[in-house]
Amino acid sequence: xxxxxxxxxxxxxxxxxxxxxxxxxxxxxxxxxxxxxxxxxxxxxxxxxxxxxxxxxxxxxxxxxxxxxxxxxxxxxxxxxxxxxxxxxxxxxxxxxxxxxxxxxxxxxxxxxxxxxxxxxxxxxxxxxxxxxxxxxxxxxxxxxxxxxxxxxxxxxxxxxxxxxxxxxxxxxxxxxxxxxxxxxxxxxxxxx
Length: 193
Prior knowledge:
Blueprint: E1 2-6, E2 8-10, H1 17-26, E3 36-44, E4 53-55, E5 58-61, H2 64-71, H3 74-83, E6 88-98, E7 108-115, H4 122-137, E8 142-150, E9 155-162, E10 172-180, E11 190-191
């Protein structure tokens, strides 16, 4: 599994209805994309207490070929054409689980990024992240949860989809405008090594 996200931060007075309409008209285009475990079309708004207006879709890929096909194909080029070329963050998967709300349509998502301290052993940090992931994945209302790592920056990514409103204490909170999940059942469960 590979996790990928790009963030498009928009002006404070940006009409976020433009993003909603974009997702409503184009979101279905990835509903059968090869290699895509899931894509959560995420948005957060200042009017909801976010520090920024932001469109920040997050992807979980079953294999790098699907991710590469998207990045070098017309899908990502549409983002580049409309918003410029954003930095694409990516992490290698550590674990994925379906939660107790796995059958629900997610309404919100949380994302928490944690830097591994320079004096902390990477294996120990990953072990702690996996334990936290297991706890998060079992929480009431969780549809699905993933944890991944970027070893270039030594950053952990904790991500969860929620059936209803996500708890703010867990991290950045996003609205889920649409979920494309053509190969969600193929995302490997549990620890990924």
